[in-house]
């Protein structure tokens, strides 16, 4: 009788163990999947940048080094191993700012603004920038879920035994963290 | 929180199904008894009809709901770049697959989501909402819809719409029976009974339909979706401004909206005076905006 009880307890413990372990693996995989979402968008942007540089080079005057800086940042991102999340995102933020300055300069050139190709590129790039921001947010959400699991009892015991490592949050660039200010006077209609 | 909401929605969907079949059975029994003097064939016929209808609605719900609301599908980003990209972004951050996208040609700003589950979901937006809202505001609205998708609100609401329309159809049928019976009343005793049954059916059916919608679409759902939208966009202002604009505009044209699917929309698309009590499925806009401002 006692033997059966012990057997039952052992079976329950093993099932719990397997369940918790699988939960951890799944949560970790979600963080990896959401990183690959970011990666897809970074690659897409990298593909668009040479086109953009070609398009604006001839038709607008930029300060010395503006375009070169963007190109070198792009190349730095392609050379950074994707496993280095923090460095990749730091470079990506700089690249975002570089692109913003290109668009700001291009504003002053009506020919460029009237060009179909330029407008299409600009639309695709801003779409990609949005997706980078949103996939970064998704990554932080999945990371928060995974890290909470790692720290809560009894999951933390099993995580330690199988040496699960916490996932690192991606910092949001400073200007995005500012609260959006909206005036209530422009409510149209 | 999210999982509780999903579980609750799945439970309610089952309750809705059971209620629907019970109801069909009772109607079938009553009709069978009075028309054929035997209730069993009536029940069998009614249940078979019910199963066929439910199966059809379950597999075709998106297309049926979309055509009920005169929505046209768009299949690539060139047809409405802003809408398409915003839906893509919101699906990305909500971690659900990209839904199908539809546009309703109506100047009043409004939007809704439908489908069986996140893998078979669809969102619709009016041409009005595309022209009136800024990108930030439209993001808020689409995030609200994506929360309905992620929560399985869409399944529950779509089934509720399907069953309400079935009952409305039966009620219509009953009304016609009543007229039909009324004509022959003087010289036909049978007609008298049929007319009586039919009129009772009509009396019973309409409130049942309304109650079912009420059951499925608790007002809480919209508050939850608003909160979920803010969780996705991190920007309550966008949704607040969108709701302000939507609530200050004209209702949609009656030709485009079917009253049964009014509950799906982010804001009640019908004239507020009509049907307000029967179908009051949306909490007052001022309360929703106040809740968003507290976030």
UniProtKB/TrEMBL annotation, chain A:
<keyword id="KW-1133">Transmembrane helix</keyword>
<dbReference type="GO" id="GO:0016020">
    <property type="term" value="C:membrane"/>
</dbReference>
<keyword id="KW-0472">Membrane</keyword>
<dbReference type="InterPro" id="IPR007156">
    <property type="entry name" value="MamQ_LemA"/>
</dbReference>
<comment type="similarity">
    <text>Belongs to the LemA family.</text>
</comment>
<keyword id="KW-0812">Transmembrane</keyword>
<protein>
    <submittedName>
        <fullName>LemA family protein</fullName>
    </submittedName>
</protein>
<dbReference type="InterPro" id="IPR023353">
    <property type="entry name" value="LemA-like_dom_sf"/>
</dbReference>
<dbReference type="Pfam" id="PF04011">
    <property type="entry name" value="LemA"/>
</dbReference>
<feature type="transmembrane region" description="Helical">
    <location>
        <begin position="6"/>
        <end position="25"/>
    </location>
</feature>
TrEMBL record, chain B:
<keyword id="KW-0479">Metal-binding</keyword>
<dbReference type="InterPro" id="IPR050083">
    <property type="entry name" value="HtpX_protease"/>
</dbReference>
<keyword id="KW-1003">Cell membrane</keyword>
<dbReference type="InterPro" id="IPR022919">
    <property type="entry name" value="Pept_M48_protease_HtpX"/>
</dbReference>
<feature type="binding site">
    <location>
        <position position="144"/>
    </location>
    <ligand>
        <name>Zn(2+)</name>
    </ligand>
</feature>
<feature type="transmembrane region" description="Helical">
    <location>
        <begin position="39"/>
        <end position="58"/>
    </location>
</feature>
<feature type="transmembrane region" description="Helical">
    <location>
        <begin position="193"/>
        <end position="217"/>
    </location>
</feature>
<feature type="binding site">
    <location>
        <position position="222"/>
    </location>
    <ligand>
        <name>Zn(2+)</name>
    </ligand>
</feature>
<feature type="domain" description="Peptidase M48">
    <location>
        <begin position="79"/>
        <end position="294"/>
    </location>
</feature>
<feature type="transmembrane region" description="Helical">
    <location>
        <begin position="12"/>
        <end position="33"/>
    </location>
</feature>
<keyword id="KW-0812">Transmembrane</keyword>
<keyword id="KW-0862">Zinc</keyword>
<keyword id="KW-0346">Stress response</keyword>
<dbReference type="InterPro" id="IPR001915">
    <property type="entry name" value="Peptidase_M48"/>
</dbReference>
<protein>
    <recommendedName>
        <fullName>Protease HtpX homolog</fullName>
        <ecNumber>3.4.24.-</ecNumber>
    </recommendedName>
</protein>
<keyword id="KW-0472">Membrane</keyword>
<feature type="transmembrane region" description="Helical">
    <location>
        <begin position="159"/>
        <end position="181"/>
    </location>
</feature>
<keyword id="KW-0645">Protease</keyword>
<keyword id="KW-1133">Transmembrane helix</keyword>
<keyword id="KW-0482">Metalloprotease</keyword>
<feature type="binding site">
    <location>
        <position position="148"/>
    </location>
    <ligand>
        <name>Zn(2+)</name>
    </ligand>
</feature>
<keyword id="KW-0378">Hydrolase</keyword>
């Amino acid at each position: 009788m006692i033997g059966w009880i012990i057997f039952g307890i052992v079976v329950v413990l093993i099932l719990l163990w397997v369940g918790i372990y699988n939960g951890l693996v799944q949560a970790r995989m979600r963080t990896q999947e959401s990183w690959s979402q970011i990666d897809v968008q970074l690659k897409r942007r990298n593909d668009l940048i040479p086109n953009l540089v070609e398009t604006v080079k001839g038709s607008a005057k930029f300060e010395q080094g503006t375009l070169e800086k963007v190109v070198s940042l792009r190349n730095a991102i392609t050379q950074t191993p994707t496993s280095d999340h923090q460095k990749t995102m730091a470079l990506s933020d700089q690249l975002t700012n570089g692109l913003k300055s290109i668009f700001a300069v291009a504003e002053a050139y009506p020919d460029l603004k009237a060009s179909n190709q330029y407008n299409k590129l600009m639309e695709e790039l801003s779409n990609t920038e949005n997706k980078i921001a949103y996939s970064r947010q998704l990554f932080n959400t999945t990371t928060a879920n995974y890290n909470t699991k790692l720290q809560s009892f009894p999951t933390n015991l099993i995580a330690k035994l199988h040496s699960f490592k916490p996932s690192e949050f991606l910092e949001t660039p400073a200007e995005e963290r500012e609260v959006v200010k909206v005036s209530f006077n422009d409510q149209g209609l | 929180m999210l999982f509780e909401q999903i579980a609750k929605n799945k439970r309610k969907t089952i309750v809705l199904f059971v209620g629907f079949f019970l109801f069909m059975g009772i109607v079938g029994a009553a009709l069978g008894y009075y028309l054929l003097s035997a209730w069993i064939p009536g029940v069998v016929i009614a249940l078979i009809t019910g199963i066929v209808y439910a199966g059809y609605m379950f597999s075709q719900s998106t297309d049926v709901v979309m055509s009920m609301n005169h929505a046209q599908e768009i299949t690539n980003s060139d047809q409405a770049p802003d809408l398409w990209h915003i839906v893509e972004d919101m699906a990305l951050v909500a971690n659900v697959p990209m839904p199908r996208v539809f546009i309703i040609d109506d100047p009043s700003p409004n939007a809704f989501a439908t489908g069986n589950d996140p893998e078979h979901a669809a969102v619709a937006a009016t041409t009005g909402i595309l022209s009136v809202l800024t990108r930030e505001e439209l993001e808020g609205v689409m995030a609200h819809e994506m929360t309905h998708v992620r929560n399985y609100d869409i399944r529950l609401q779509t089934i509720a719409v399907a069953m309400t329309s079935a009952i409305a159809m039966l009620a219509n049928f009953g009304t016609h029976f009543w007229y039909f019976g009324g004509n022959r009343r003087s010289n036909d005793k049978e007609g008298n009974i049929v007319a009586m049954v039919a009129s009772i059916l009509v009396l019973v059916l309409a409130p049942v339909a309304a109650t079912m919608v009420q059951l499925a679409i608790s007002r809480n759902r919209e508050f939850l979706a608003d909160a979920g939208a803010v969780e996705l966009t991190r920007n309550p202002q966008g949704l607040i401004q969108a709701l302000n604009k939507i609530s200050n505009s004209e209702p949609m044209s009656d030709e485009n909206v079917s009253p049964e699917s009014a509950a799906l929309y982010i804001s009640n698309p019908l004239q507020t005076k009509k049907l307000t009590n029967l179908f009051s499925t949306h909490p007052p806009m001022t309360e929703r905006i106040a809740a968003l401002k507290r976030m």
